[in-house]
Write a structure and sequence with these properties.
The protein is of the alpha/beta class. The protein has one domain: Rossmann fold. It contains nine helices and ten strands. It has a six-stranded parallel beta sheet, with helices on both faces. α1 packs parallel to α2 and α7 runs parallel beside α8. It is globular. The protein starts with a strand and ends with a helix. The structure holds adenosine-5'-triphosphate and magnesium ion. The site of magnesium ion has 4 residues, from α1.
């Protein structure tokens, strides 16, 4: 059976891709066939091979095999903005069908699929489609990446409260040291943990540009049981 996880975050730009790639490398280190998905990517570059998104390319590079790009990123939108608006700009409507069928193709080749959402949990995909619809359709466990900076406790609590309200399950959270100037990081992290109703899967340290977190930064045991 393929295990699949949906990576959401306290905001856009807080380390979902970094965390998703770290998870992929950690699963790979356990000998599992691991692959990433960025089902809806807003912000793509035109290449000779078609539209390409840097998150999707990073996830492909972190996986244990390199599937067709369209399976990893079935909905590739040019405009770097919120997905519903990017879809409108492209004259498109985001629907679940192409995403679910790409997922099924990948699931036939992978032990683990790590799916990166777009922005934060409530960033809509259309007037009638939230990201939670995909999570429910595929019965995914949600992992919340908390970008550790001032304000993250409220964003994290809002997300952790809304995910179950939307009928989804929060399997765990990851702290990511996105802001080197965050004041009182240890005390703040402890406080954050005390307010979140799910286990912490690990802390990703402040990274130098181009560096990846250590492969043992995240614990997978909770996820393997979920
Ligand atoms: N722990 C860290 N230390 C230093 N830089 C980081 C860290 N985590 C993320 N970054 C940097 O912050 C930026 C945003 O990270 P990332 O792309 O993973 O965020 P995201 O949540 O996936 O963003 P998006 O919403 O656009 O998908 C990137 O330039 C990344 O290299
Ligand atoms: Mg990203």
């Amino acid at each position: 059976m393929t295990r699949a996880f949906f990576i959401t975050g306290t905001d856009t730009g807080i380390g979902k891709t970094v965390a998703a790639c770290a998870l992929l490398r950690a699963f790979a280190a356990r000998g599992l066939r691991a692959v990433g998905m960025k089902p809806v990517a807003a912000g793509c570059e035109r290449t000779t091979d078609g539209w390409r998104n840097e998150d999707a390319l990073a996830l492909i590079a972190a996986g244990t095999f390199q599937p067709d790009y369209a399976l990893v990123n079935p909905v590739a939108l040019p405009e770097p903005t919120t997905p519903e608006l990017a879809a409108t700009c492209a004259g498109a409507d985001i629907t679940l069908e192409p995403i679910v069928s790409a997922f099924r193709m990948l699931a036939s080749q992978a032990d683990v699929i790590v799916i990166e959402g777009a922005g934060g949990w409530l960033a809509p995909w259309s007037a009638t489609l939230d990201q939670s619809a995909l999570v429910k359709a595929l019965d995914l466990s949600v992992i919340l990446v908390c970008g550790l900076k001032l304000g993250c406790i409220s964003h994290a609590r809002l997300s952790a409260r809304t995910i179950p309200d939307d009928g989804c399950r929060l399997a765990g959270w990851i702290g990511n040291r996105i802001d080197p100037n965050w004041h009182l990081p240890d005390a703040n992290t402890e406080l954050l943990a005390s307010h979140l109703p799910a286990p912490c899967l690990g802390m990703l340290p402040i990274l130098a540009p181009g560096d990846a977190p250590p492969v043992d930064a995240l614990t997978l045991d909770v996820l393997m049981r979920s």
